[in-house]
Amino acid sequence: MLLKYIIPYIRDYGSLDFIYSYLGTKERNKNIENNQFRRFVLNDDKKGLWVCFLPWNISFESASKLNLIPKKKKVIVYEMPCGIINPVPKLSKKIMLNIVADLKNNIDLEQKFSVMGLSIGIYPAFYVANHFNVDKLVILAPGAYLGESLWEGVATQEVKRRAVNQGCLTFKEYDKEIRGTNPIENLDDLPKDIEIYISTNDNFIKTKFGEKVINKLNEKEKNPVVKYFKGKGHVLGLVEFGLKNNY
Predict the structure, then answer these.
(1) Where in the chain are the domains?
(2) Which residues, including other chains, have CB under 8 Å from residue 190's CB and lie 6 or more apart?
(3) How far apart are CA 115 and CA 226, in angstroms?
(4) CB 3.0–4.6 Å: which of 15, 89, 98, 166 could bond 177 by disulfide?
């Protein structure tokens, strides 16, 4: 497939993020109150387990076509509800913890497993990897704090506007409300095997916020393997990850 060889050389410097954000605004805003996640189980007969948390507003079907889901082991896939990035911070936290509770009820807690978090999927991914018996963590498009990221992300400005209208005036107030669940607050007990994929020009989850997580992990001597998508934004980073996904 030619795209596999062409995409790594394409540099959009995040411009596609603005186009994709504009095209998807109506659909995201319509579903912003949707708080219901979906769970899928694949390869139930295979040994080993991956738990995969999908990006915002990307269905299981679309993620499958983009090759964003692991294939070599049994996989539990969570499709994120649009409302997980919520104008009410306590609802974001509640939705994430509901997903974690569902996972807890559907796995053997004594069994080690691997976790993949993509885009907003990093929110539950870091939390799960820090609290469960996980042996590998794969992250695409990391961010340090949920509120901080949504405040500056080009696709989340309507969420920010609604949050401000409901009295949450700054990202610091937002992140205070969900304290303890932000990715950067869930690093101490992560597995030794951590891989992070980050675009250098991400406008959804700003690259600087991902670098903040990476720097904190290095401070804690977690030493993640970091792979950069140079000259790419969030959208092309997802595409390139899917083309290279061999998990």
Answers:
(1) 2-244
(2) 126, 129, 130, 134, 137, 217, 222
(3) 16
(4) 89
Determine how many CB atoms are found less than 10 A away from the CB of residue 20: 20
Q: Scanning the structure block, which residue is given the tokens 């996980």?
A: 134
pTM of the shown model: 0.95
Give the DSSP H/E element, type plus range, for residue 49: strand 49-53
Return per-residue pLDDT of the chain as tens, 247 residues.
667 778 888 999 999 999 989 887 777 777 777 889 999 999 999 999 999 999 998 999 999 999 999 999 999 999 999 999 999 999 999 999 999 999 999 999 889 999 999 999 999 999 999 999 999 999 999 999 999 999 999 999 999 999 999 999 999 999 999 999 999 999 999 999 999 999 999 999 999 999 999 999 999 999 999 999 999 999 999 999 999 999 9
CA dihedral 15, 17, 20, 24 (to 10 degrees): -140
Give the number of other Cβ atoms within 10 Å of residue 193's Cβ. 14
CB 206 within 8 A of CB 151: no
H/E stretch holding 97: helix 89-104
- 66: which residues sit within 8 A by CB, 6+ positions away? 58, 238, 239, 242
Supply the angle between the helices 89-104 and 122-131 in degrees, to the nearest 10: 50
Identify the CATH homologous superfamily for domain 2-244: Alpha/Beta hydrolase fold, catalytic domain (3.40.50.1820)
CA gyration radius, the chain:
17
φ, ψ of residue 75 to 5 degrees: the values are -135, 130
